[in-house]
Amino acid sequence: MPLSPARRPSARSAATAAVVVLALALLGPLLGAPARAGTTGTTGGATAAGRVYGTLQTSPARLAETGAAGVDTATLQVVWRRFEPVEGQVDAAYVAQVREELAAYRAAGRHVVLGTGVQYPPDWLLAYPDSRFVNQYGDAYAPAETGKKVANMVFNQTMRDKQAAYLSRVLATFGTDFWGVRLGGGWYGELNYPEAVYGTRTNAYWGFDRLARGAAPGLPPGVRPNPVPGWVPGTPSPDHAAAAAFAEWYMASLDDYHDWQIATVRRLYPGRLLMMYPSWGVRPGQLDAAVAADLAGTTSAERNGEVQRGFDVARFVGGITDPDVVVYTTWLNADASRDAGTDQRYWSPVRYLAHLARSRTVPLEVMGENTGRDTVEDMALSFEQARRLDLLGVVWAFEPDLFGGVYAGVGDLAAAIAEDRRLSAPTPSSSPTPTASPTPTASPTPTASPTPTTTPTPTASPTPTASPTPTATPTPTTGPTTGPTPPPAPLVVTTDALPRASTALPFSAALDAGGGTGALTWTASGLPQGLGLASTTTGWRLQGRPTATGTSTVVLTVTDATGTRSSRSLPLEVRAAPRVRQRNLPGATSGATYATTLTAEGGWCPCTWRAVQLPPGLTLSGAGELRGTAPAAGTWTVTVEVVDDLGAVGRTSLSLKVSPARLVRSRTLLRSATTTRWSRWTPTQELRLR
């Protein structure tokens, strides 16, 4: 199976999701449903309702079940490190596997979206000089998690050249008859810089490698060196000039990579390009507020990592010149309770992206996917947003979740698609009315929003095709000069997911909240054994080392100085370290070719293999292939380690019994070099049988 990242789950409670769905239904006239942009791409095809329905981590084995549910689009995920394990050499066996998968999707009548797998670079690529991002602390970005091990495509032209060559080979190998191609090029395949929190470092900005600083040649032509190479984020400067120059350069550099991806793939492929925009995004005024604080990590957009990760989506979408780029959110199920308001900082990601895409002279299509491991309520919200904003498609992450019995299931997806088709069908007299959701029991709160100083009041019903006009422009960094002091923003837990955990590794997760008054304190219930709360110099964290496996529902509660509380329930899954499935190795014959493949169980796979002790003549690949020429006869010890996606290690020693080679005696007829007579060679020749 192709690799796909296990992204952070959405953790909205069922009650909140129900409130949001009801709010969207009631506020539909305010939001409107803007006319969809036309596409000039050559690879069309949508449902009768004008929308496609797809899955991530699509499996050929589930085609009948998902097809019966109404899914019509598959995602074909190619993995760079498997496609080209050695530079310039394509793995024929892997290509055959992907072609077989592609043929199955097409035989089932599915549209196919290509995932290029740039987020899974091969080891040889990362061995190039300056191949990794570097932050202001001097840390090179080298995470253990698969899907995050990205190369420095923003500041290194050599990395872009290698990516362009890889993309050319992929499309030459599998063709260009795809419904769309996913772009983004960062970790998890989305458009981004690395994480704002890395190891023990916080407020990490990733523009300090040698090329970015101008200390070595090799920048792409459209990227200039850091204009303030001696300045570090958080350092004051006159009029915040250094922070302003750095912020502009930092965002423009990622924008250059954004545009380069579009132009590069467009030369190879004529159809839709799905550009993946993650998270909430930097909203109007937030970058200016961060600059005014010298990028010290203290503003709301920085605390949530939006600025450090480069999510200046207005810049990206506004600069697109290709009409067949699709603006794609990877957080379709984000809180939408304030989508009818005029303050763009509080709009859900898909609402904001739709506004940007359709405010252009040439509007762009919009579609999206949920975050993964989500509930039936999340699914209902995703489809309600698709109808409200007339999205081109809904992709459900992830297909295995539909069959695991924990999250929204395939039956729920079938019902959601059927309802979407019914409500989206054109009627001669009126627009369809969304089905009402259960009556909410509490007012919804935003998932992760900055703290405003005023509550703008709309003067007219906003639509996504024109910029809304508030009666007072909110200023995130200063209070109003006149009028009464506004009440504080409502207290809300903004931590929306907990990372995966292993009994073999220490665990640490930062907790964050927005709004409220004064100092905050946290409590937690439902924690796995071995974990607890701790107040650190960088804030509150869940930390420790879990001692038992399983999935827990952790309830986080934050309390401010007035006693106001906010809670959120989040799933936390703990797994043991991976184990080698084999207990014995197949026997071998001395001097003969030997090959076997090791497999793992447990842990957070995909896994990587490494050798600790091998007999002479044998090697172990990262994919677990043990091969080579068998050593001398005897019993040998083979010690290997399997490392999962989180870095947890399982070690096993196996016995390899090598039998002696069988011998056969033969007499060979040789022709004399000096006569024409034949003679027998009397010495006995020993031939090894292999």
Descriptive account of the structure:
It contains 15 helices and 30 strands. With 690 residues, the protein is α/β, with parallel strands linked by helices. Among the domains are: 492-575, Immunoglobulins (Immunoglobulin-like, Sandwich); 579-665, Immunoglobulins (Immunoglobulin-like, Sandwich), CATH 2.60.40. It has an eight-stranded parallel β-sheet with strand order 1-8-7-6-5-4-3-2, covered by helices on one side. A four-stranded mixed β-sheet has the order 10-17-16-13, with no helix packed on it. Strand 23 (618-620) and strand 24 form a beta hairpin. Helix 3 packs parallel to helix 15. Residues 1-6, 8-16, 37-48, 430-483 and 667-690 have low confidence and may be disordered.
Q: What keywords describe this structure?
A:
disordered C terminus, Immunoglobulin-like, 22% helix, 690 residues, alpha/beta, disordered N terminus, eight-stranded parallel sheet, four-stranded mixed sheet
Structural class: alpha/beta
**How much of the sequence is in beta strands?**
15-25%
**What is the straight-line distance between the termini?**
34 Å
Strand order of the largest sheet: 1-8-7-6-5-4-3-2
CATH class of the domain at 579-665: Mainly Beta
CATH architecture of the domain at 579-665: Sandwich
For this structure, what is the CATH homologous superfamily of the domain at 579-665? Immunoglobulins
Number of helices: 15
Largest sheet: 8 strands, parallel
